[in-house]
Amino acid sequence: MEEKARAKSKPSQFFSTKQKHTIIQAFLAGNRPKQQVWKEFTGEVKEKGKILKFMRQLGYIENSVKKKPISFYMDEKPKTSPPVELPEKDAQSAEIKQLKLQLKDSQLREQSYLLMIEIAERDLKINIRKKSYTK
Fold first, then answer.
1. Cβ(34)–Cβ(51) under 8 Å?
2. In angstroms, how far is CA 21 from the centroid of its own chain?
3. CA 60 – CA 95 distance, rounded (Å)
4. Per-residue confidence (pLDDT) for residue 55, from 0 to 100
5. How much is the pLDDT for 104?
6. Side-chain half-sphere of 24: how many Cα atoms within 13 Å?
7. Residues contacting 46, CB < 8 A, separation 6+
8. Residue 10 above 60 pLDDT?
9. Which of 27, 31, 67, 102 is found 20 to 30 A from 120 (Cα to Cα)?
10. What is the distance between the alpha carbons of residues 3 and 88, in angstroms, rounded to a whole number?
11. Distance between CA atoms of 20 and 87, rounded to whole angstroms?
């Protein structure tokens, strides 16, 4: 039973610096993607960022990835300042702007309803609007 479990597990991949250099050189020399170079040297399809890791370790890439400390994510939220009360003129002008927007919206809505009624009367050939002489 133990032999079967061992056979299923992957062998550990340890690469010497010379092997790492040859993998990197093969990647840099050709126009092949990393996955293809990795498959050629290891037989595995997925590369999982190992070539870039080797390049950072061996100095091919100068700037290394700097990870943010956990405390960065755990900082408290900045306290928001209390809302500033607007002077009366600003409040009135804001209210006027809001009322103008509401008026424009209601006018557009009225036009769309009238157009909808006209289309329905034309297509369905039914008088929808109320006649003035009816009781």
1. yes
2. 36
3. 62
4. 86
5. 94
6. 19
7. 35, 38
8. no
9. 102
10. 84
11. 69
* Distance, CA of 52 to CA of 34 (rounded, Å): 9
Compute the residue count for the chain: 135
Tokens of 131: 């006649």
pLDDT of residue 110: 94
- Burial group, residue 19, by CB count within 10 angstroms (0-12, 13-18, 19+): middle
pLDDT of 14 higher than 70: yes
Q: Which of 64, 46, 43 is nearest to 55 (CA)?
A: 64
pLDDT at 74: 53
In angstroms, how far is CA 121 from the centroid of its own chain? 47
Dig out the tokens for 85 from the structure: 């009360």
What integer is the mean pLDDT of 102-111?
A: 94
For tokens 């050939």, what's the residue?
A: 125
Residues 128/120, Cβ–Cβ less than 8 Å = yes
